[in-house]
Structures are given as structure tokens and as C-alpha cells.
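[C-ALPHA CELLS]
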Amino acid sequence: MICFLLLGAIQGIGQDLEGPDLGELVVKASDEMNAMPPRHDAAAKAWEACAELAKEQNDDYIWVYSRLFTASSYQHLGVWDSVRNIIFEMEEVLPELRFATSEKPKVRADYSFILAKYFRHKGIYDASMNYSQQAVDLLLELAGENEEGQLDYTRIGYGVGFLAADYLNDLAMEYVTMGDYEKAKNYYEMGLRVTEESQYANNVTINPRQLNNLGLVYLEINRPDKALFLLREAQEAQNKLNKGELDEYDQETQGLIDMSLAQVHLAKKDWAKAEEYIDKALEVSINSRFKIRKLRVHLELIAQDEGLKAAKTAFDGLFDLTEQEYGSFHPLMLDNYKVWAGLLLDDNQLSESELMYNKGVNVLRRMDSDECDCRNVRITDLSNKIDALELFEKKAEILLKKESLTEALDCYSLIQRIFSQLMTTYVLNEQSKLFLIERMKGVNETAIRTAIRNNDTARAYEFSQQSRSMLLLQQIQQGQTLNTMGLPETVLKQGRRLQITVQELLKERRAAEVANDSKTFSTISNRYFGAVRAYEEWESNLESDYPDYFKMKHELPSISVSELQQWLKKRKTTLLEYFLGEDYLFVFIVDGRQLNVETIHLDDAFRFNIHHLKEAVRHPKMDQESVATYVRNAHIVYQELIGQFEEKGLVSHENLLVVPDGELNLLPFEALLKTTSGAESHSFGFLDYALNHYNISYTYNSRLLRGNDGSRDKVQFLGVAPSFNESIQELEFNQEEVRAINAIYKGEGLLGARGNYQNFEDAVKSANILHMATHAIFDDQIPLASKIELMDTSMYLYQIATMEHQLDLAVLSACQTASGKERKGEGLISLTRAFIRSGCPNVIASLWDVSDRKAFDITRDFHSNFREKDLPISLSLTKAKRKYLADATNFSAHPFFWSGLVYVGEESGVLVSNWNYLIGFGVLFSILFLILVYRKYFI
């Protein structure tokens, strides 16, 4: 790396030399650095002399680089105190130095890079990441922008190009350390783009180190085949660079690739093959990190063949070498503790293993201690929160084996606090957050089981809440914060525009990946990276200009059990929340009086019944055998999900609020059968559906149930029923549907050609009830490409999520608007979710393709119930479905035609009819009249 630093800087130094003595010193110092192997000790002394003379001659530019190169030499020598002293010295004088304006971004970038290296060595990852990001941003400023407003890598010069590629590589490594693999992938790929397209592209082949590191990212996200492919590409690229005798940099690169191949085999627990590749790495590169990894693998081999007693000596040697080379608080020391603790745990040496995990935690806290009480750990003291998650998971596992349930629960509660901070204040992007949420689902399953064993139902429920739609909650909170802070409209519009651009390019990038179109993928990636940087800069400026924004956007909504019970009591509702784990289904039953949890052991029969029931609902068959099969499965599933809790007296209200999970997300509970009554008729019209007994609604997370109950005295309805061109099939009844519903509200209807995007965008800003009768398409491979059709364009999922509106209710009378791709722990990524995310609290949508005519019948009656009869949203939809079912013939009574329309929401901000206000005014007038009469005659 240091030779690239020199390449970029020496050109400028050569132009500014003042006197032969200083020039000779620069050449001498450079020769010491470029020697094979580099003579860092001599280089440090030579650069010190350069700095002293440059200071005498008032040459600020040469002084800066002399100090930077001195720090780099000391880094290679491991003299970190000297590095720190240079950093402090430069920080004090750097703002006052005078040299060419064009050189300042590069100087600051190099200085930031030195800082990043220093803090990474110290294990202070947040600071390290921050300075790496600064270095990259400063260097990419030199690239400028092309006509499309995107980064123009072709403008990056030879020396700066080397620096930019390696700084991007380094920043990616920071995100790997933090567990943000999506951003790491982005920066590695950006580094490859710099290598391919910058002005020095003809001088080198593809950078093998970048390919190597990108391969390791794919290994981290459990894609070993992709990892091996990239590592082989790295080998080929390195072989093209190998000409004659290898220099130290090439030797170390070859060693890194061999070490990465060893990691692939370590993941497969092929110890012998892993050791073989480590030996290859050591043959070409004498690197202390390689030696430590070699000792670590050797330790595991001894433990496997001879036992832990024999391996103890190897562990002591590993520990001593790491401490000698890197100190007691380096991440390599943490890795040593994790390996040894894992071996002890496998050998059931619980106390000894816990001690090692405690030591690992205290490496992150920079404390020399064997103790670690989860109740007293401050999250701000943990230098790496991703590593902390892993350590505390293992510690909790040990505590469970020791039957220390209360201590284990304290550990799981700490894990949840760390997770919440990662989700809110850390720099993880959306894809990385989804990856982290998926990982946490398994942790929470164990935490729930532990809380139940410890008779702590309230804490079990908290763990369940933490396992669903956390990203959605955060996105809603961010949107609400932006809308309530009184920000300038120009700022808000810019943010929405940038966010849509990022999502649009991400969609196109994913489409190119699915199509295996590498050329298009590469081109779009360039634009995508530029868009991401622009959005992050916008948000960074926002947090700087409006400090309250940062605080408010991270205050995720919460609801205590008592607050939830008050909410449910007021609405006479029972909540059924399902947590679908690997082995168990946990069901939380909550009403105004009690919180209960039931545990159901999952077996193949349960999953079989769920799967076949969903298939039967979506694909109507009317023969006798199909009806009988449906009756059997629908009743069994009802008993599992509702019936057994009825029998215990836990379901106390007609109103049911369901929080589904996993496979249950696409199951309409209304279509379950309470009894097998009516089965003998072999007709779907006479079955005992749950719809006939309960008023059922759905929500993503009970934390969303704290909306206000306020009403508005004005209803502004917007109906949308576009016509289509030849490429999209016309809907026969959609315009008739909107006309009929608009007659109920007397609002605005965008029919036919008026149902275009511009008219919709303008009208939705003032509407509070929206009804869309149109086409919709859910894309399973690329969820971001899911869309609702308007007359002249498609409105994609991400556009809906960021649109400007004041909606309280959206009715989506279109196909698959409630369907989506299941993300473990987060729920369905769907068009319904996009409306909820945008700030619309109540949505009625379809789980599958709807019948144009049948949807018309149900939605018309729903609006009539809601507007004219003044019923709540959920009850309005339930009564509309019951009426439809009562009027239906045998075939049209099949659940396919009516159960797919579901209500997702919180009944908050719900509009009421004007009659309600007249009644309210009448009551108030009567009270005032009585007061006046009382005062006149009795006072």
C-alpha cells in the first residue's frame, strides 16, 4: 500500500523541491521505502530528516508528506506510539499549512487514511470507518462528474487512481468488520470500477486484492461457490502480474489469496486442506497475521486429534505471539478467544468457555478482566457491536446449559439493545439490515423459549416484538420525522428524489444480475454508487443542519404490555401474535385483561396442512374431493391457530387482530373453518368460516398500534380507474366501480385517460381516502419492480413508499397488492407495505389475483358500511364479505373470490361520517342547554 501512497505524492513533491539537499533526502527516503524488502526503520529516519529540513525551508507540502510517510513507516514497524504522536502533531498544524489548493483534497485523504489505519489497529472501528470514509470521499471529489451527474472514474489520474482503488478496498473492509456486507460489496465493486476505468487501467490488470476481498464477502453471506469463483479470478489476475521475482507486495497478495482459500475450507471444517493453503501462504509471505492463523488452525487440528489438554500449549503460544505482535486488545486476540472458547464449549467445559467469551467481550471494552455481567455492560464501550452480538449469543448459550435462566435472559436483553442500536444509529444500509434481522430471528426464538421457561411472559413478548418488521418501523419513523420537522419543501423534495433514484438503480442492477448481463450490471453499478453517495451526503447535511432530526428518527415507536392492553380494551379486541420458529410456533394471546403465550411444537403435518390450505384457497376446485380436503385442512389449521385457545377461554372478543409470521403471512384467517358443519353439502357456500364468527384484521407489529383516534370533519375521496393501451388488458368494471364508490363520498374520480401519473400525484396530496381499481403486479424475483399501473406509466413499490400524501385509508382493488416476498423476521415486502411505509396507516389489499366483478361488489359495500353506516374499517370489510357470501352461488362462494381482500392497519386516524359530527354537536348543545337551565332555575 505504501508504494501507492508514494506514487501519488512524489509527483507533487518533485515539482516543489527547494534546494538539492532536500531533494536528495526525499530520494533517499523513497529508496529505503521501495527497497525489496522495504527498510522501514531507515525510511522512518530519512523521512524524519526530510520533515525537519522542509520545516526549516517553510515547504509545507513536503513537510506534510514527510510526516505521513514517517507515520506509514512506523505503522509497518508496529511503533504505534510514534504514529499517534505524528497524528496529534499534524492535526494541530494541518489547517494552517499553505500549498496548492488542488493538492489539499489528496493531502487530507492521505492523512485520513493514516488515521483510519491507526484506529483500526486500536480496535476503535467507528473512528476507523469514519476516517476511511473521509479518505474515499475526498479522493472521489477529484474524479468529478460526467454529463449525467455521476462519478467519472476516467478522470482519476495514475497516482490518485491507485490510492482511490485501495482506499475503497480499505473502506469496504471497515464495513466487513461491522457486518455490513452489502455496503462492503458496493465499495469493493466500486474499487474494481476505478481499476477498470481510471487513467491507469492500462498499466495493471484487475486488482487481485479487490477480487480476493470481494470473494470473502460472498463467503460471509453463505455463497461459497461465488466466493470460489472470485478467488480463482484473483489467482488469475495475480498470475498475470507475476513477472520474474516477486516483490514483497505481490508475495503478500498471493499469500492473501491462499489464506482466503484456506478460509473457504475452514468454513467447511476441512482442517487439513485449510492448513495446506496456509502453508502455501507462508511460503510466499512471512506475515505475522498468517503465522497467527496457521497456529490457530494447528490448534484446532491438535484439539481434534489429541484433545484440549494437548492443545493448551498451542493456545498459549498463539496467545503470546498475538499479544507480542499486536497487543492485548487487537481483533486478532478476540479471534483467538473465540476459537478457544468454542473448542471448550464443544467439550462441554462450560465455565472455562464462558471465561474465554468474557475475555473476548473485554477485548472490545478494552478491559483486562475475566468478569462480564450483562446487566452492567454499556453498549457505547463496545468497539465492535457485530462481534459483541456473536460473543453474547455464545455466552447466553452457555448460561442456558448451566440452567442460569435469569442471567441468560439478561444476556438476550443486552443483545436486543445492541441490535436496536445497530438498526438505528449504525450505518447499515437497507439490504444489510435485512440480513441482520434474519440472523436475529433465530436468536429471538431461543430468547422466547428461555423467557417462557422462566415464567417471564412479558419479556417473551418483548422478544417477539423485536423479531418483526423492525426495518419498516424505522422507515415509518424516519418519514414521520421528516414530515413533522417543518423542513423546507426543497429539502424534502430533494431527499425523495435521491431516494427514488437509489431504489430505481438498485432495481435495474438486480434485473441485470438476474439476466446475467455483466456489461449492463457494471454500467448501472457506476450510476448506483454515485446515487448512494449523493443520498448519504444529503442525509449527513440534514443531520448536521437539523440536529433534532438525527435524534427523532432513531426513536422507534414502542408500546408496553399495559399500553397495548389499554388499546385492545378500548376496542374490545383480542390480539393473536404468531412467532414461527424453526421448531416451535409461539402464540401470544393478549386482551385488555391478560397476556398469555402458548407453545406449539412444529411438525411436518402442520406445515403440510398450511401449504395445502394456501394452495386450495388460491386455486378453486369444486369437485367433491376438493371440498372435503379443504374442509379437513381448514378446520385442522383453525384448531391449531385459534380453536384451542377458544377452548381455554383466552379469546374473549369478536374482534381479532392478527400479527402473522412466516408462512402464515399469506394465509387469510377468515377462510379457516371453526367446525366441519356444512361439509355434507359439498358446497363452499354453507361452510362454517371464521368470517362468520370473527371480525379479523392484520398488522405488521403491535408497535404500530399507538396511532391517534382523532377524526376529521371533512372527507376528501380520490378514486382512480385508468384505461390502458393495447399492451395492458382493459378492466371491464374498474371505472364503474369507482363511479359507484365516488357517489357515496362525492369526491374526485380519475377515470380513463385522466388516471395518469401527473393527475394522481397532484390529487393524492389532498385526499384522505384513496380507492384504486387497476392492475398491479408483484415481482417475486425483484420485489422493487412490483408496481401499480396508471394510464401512462407504472408506479413502482419504492415510488409509493416515498410519495407525498395525507392518506388515512387506501383501498387497493388490484391483483397481488398484499402479496409479497417473505423476508425472515421482517415479513412481506409488498405494495401494501409500501403504502404503510409512506405513512398511510390503513390499507385494504388483495393477497392474490382478484376478480374484477367480485372485488367491485365487496369494495362497494365496504365503502357504504364505512361512510354511510359509520362502522370501523375492519367491521365494514367483514360485513361486506358476509353479505357477499350470503348472496353468492356455490362456485362464487369459494374463498378465492372473497377472502383475499384483507385489511392491514391500526384503525387510527380513521375518518367518520359527517353524521357523527352532527350527533356530537347535538350532544354538546344539549349539555350546554341543561347547564343554562340549571343556572337559571337552581342557582
The chain has 35 helices and 16 strands. Residues 149 and 530 are 8 Å apart (CA to CA). The first strand starts at residue 573 and ends at 580. Confidence is low (pLDDT under 50) at residues 1-19, 912-925.
